[in-house]
Amino acid sequence: MASDGAFQCGSAGTRFAQITDGLSNTILVGEKHVALRQFGVGWCDCSTYDGDNYVCSTRAGGPEFPIAQALDDPGWKFGSYHTNLCQFGFGDGSVRTLPSSISPAVLGLLCNISDGEVIPNY
User: Which residue of 4, 15, 34, 45 shows the fewest CB atoms closer than 10 Å?
Assistant: First the structure.
């Protein structure tokens, strides 16, 4: 998995100037999918401050990581218990609701801070 998002482990941080795709075109945070009956369980769900396994408090988006389509989806993905949608915070401060059916490729473009690609309508 490429590290091309706004937050990366071991990084001192990302400056807005590094987000060359534009703040309104870049996802910073999103709802974390946790499969049914997996709240607080191992790698599936934890706090960012837990220190044991930082990955369990993060998620990725893109062709290999589409938005979860079912409550029992075991994948490490963005997702929501809202029907057919997921909410994301963008770099410009806006919060947008994206359909769970969004193309994983488009989701990947929105998660990437500097790929230079044009984002199609979604």
Answer: 15
C-alpha to C-alpha distances, 20 to 68, 73, 114, 115, nearest whole angstrom:
28, 33, 5, 8
Looking from the CA of 45 toward its CB, the CA atoms found within 13 Å total: 13
Burial of 45 (0-12, 13-18, 19+ CB in 10 A): middle
Tokens found for residue 67:
């938005």
Q: What are the beta bridge partners of residue 30? A: 88
Structural contact between residues 67 and 98, judged by C-beta atoms closer than 8 angstroms: yes
Summarize pLDDT for 36-63 with one digit per residue, the tens: 999 888 778 887 776 677 777 788 899 9
Tell me which residue has tokens 């706004």: 6
